[in-house]
Amino acid sequence: MRGFSKKKLFILGAIVLFLIVLGLVCASRKKNNGQRATVKVERKDIVESALAIGSIEAKNEIAVKSKISGVVGRLFVEVGDFVQKGDPLLEIRPDPTPLELAEAKRNVEMVSLELENAKKAWERARELNGRGLISEEEFENIQKDFEEAELRYKMAQERLELIEKGKIQIAETAIETVIKAPISGFILERAVNVGDPVVPLTSYQAGTELIRMADMKALLFKGTVDEIDVGKLQEGMPAEIQIGALPGKTIKGHVALISLKARKQENITVFPIEVAIDETNGTTLRAGFSATARVIIAKRDSVLALPERVVTFRNDSAFVRIPQGPKDSKEVYIKTGLSDGIFIEIIDGLKEGQEVLEKEVKPIV
User: Fold this and answer.
1) Residues near 46 by Cβ (< 8 Å), separated by ≥ 6?
2) Where are the alpha helices (DSSP H) in the chain?
3) Cα-Cα-Cα-Cα dihedral sign, residues 330, 331, 332, 338
């Protein structure tokens, strides 16, 4: 009996809920039949823009490499440090293989013998030349061979000293294994630690990247725009940059570069662009920030506008419907201008404050 009462109460509640919903639907239909939805022609600022997605990057970012091999001996900087051009970054300690060291020492011995023989030949030639027994040309050739042997010996000694000690003085130039900053800027990344091996930069190998540094005063936005919008862009157009990590902050800039070549990005054709930053408004920017840039293509201030959804486009013409009495309406031709995708500029055909009918929503059958 108690179970029957619960079931009866449940059915009664469902019926009451159904009647309430039915009453609300009927009231809504009655209201809609009595009053049609309209929008007014109002003045708005309309901006046509193109959206670019990318990040903030340093304009001048450099990968520091070494021209000599070895291992990292000392580090003078850490990530985030600011250094001036010429400041020491790290020291490369020579770490020759036993074979390289042996070859360098044997090379010194070989060129030493060559120098000794060349010197004896030069001394004999000088004596013979003094007695007129050899020509001046022969003597000059022997003297040239002696001078070249001296130079080869000096080079062999310098190479051995550089391998053993890591530094050497040639004339007034000090050659050492301390890598110095090529520019003034901040240390962005450090790719090596003390003891890591270093492959030198040569004409046939890229070499080990030691440090990345950049002048953070010269930053720019690098991103891509859709191929549909790129034809509307021109260098010098103003842009507004929004930083994902800094909501509410707007950075001013202008288009500095539009790539002549497209690239595929997730099966979409896009064009790379660069936006130079003109004004940060006190915002601290960091390389790598994700960002979007809105490039201003055209702008209209305080113009008559309507939501684009109420405009019907047909045969290259635009039309809207205006109310005529409680139930009737009239289609009116209008001349439109700039659109931002939501609102569209009304150049002719309507007046400020005039009401325009919303399009009828057709029920889904």
Assistant:
1) 299, 300, 303, 305, 338, 339, 340, 343, 344, 345
2) 2-34, 98-130, 136-165, 227-230
3) positive
pLDDT at 306: 92
Contact 143, 125 (CB under 8 A): yes
Is residue 20, in this structure, part of any structural domain at all? no
Both 77 and 181 in one domain: the answer is yes
**What 3-state class would DSSP assign to 186?**
strand
The answer on 206 and 311 residing in a single domain is no
CA 145, CA 136: separation in Å to the nearest integer? 14
Helix (H, G, I), strand (E, B) or coil at 14: helix
Q: Which of 190, 184, 185, 183 is nearest to 210 (CA)?
A: 190
Chain mean pLDDT for the chain: 83
Do residues 211 and 68 share a domain?
yes
> What would the two tokens of residue 329 be?
């309406």
Residue 115 lies in a domain: yes
Residue 2: what pLDDT? 45
Name the residue range of residue 190's domain: 61-94+177-215
Structural domains in the chain (count): 4
Q: Which residues of the chain have pLDDT under 50?
A: 1-4, 25, 27-33
Say whether 215 sits in a helix, a strand or coil. Answer: coil
Instruction: State how far the Cα of 171 lies from the Cα of 154, in Å rounded to an integer.
Output: 12
**92 CB burial (10 A radius; 0-12, 13-18, 19+):** buried
Task: Check which CATH number belongs to the domain holding 197 and give it.
Answer: 2.40.50.100
Claim to verify: residue 90 and residue 233 sit in the same structural domain: no
Q: Is residue 22 part of a domain?
A: no
The amino acid at residue 156 is A
| End-to-end CA separation in angstroms for the chain | 45
Q: What is the pLDDT of residue 224?
A: 94
Does the CA dihedral 263-265-271-277 come out positive or negative?
negative
Distance CA 92, CA 210 (A): 11
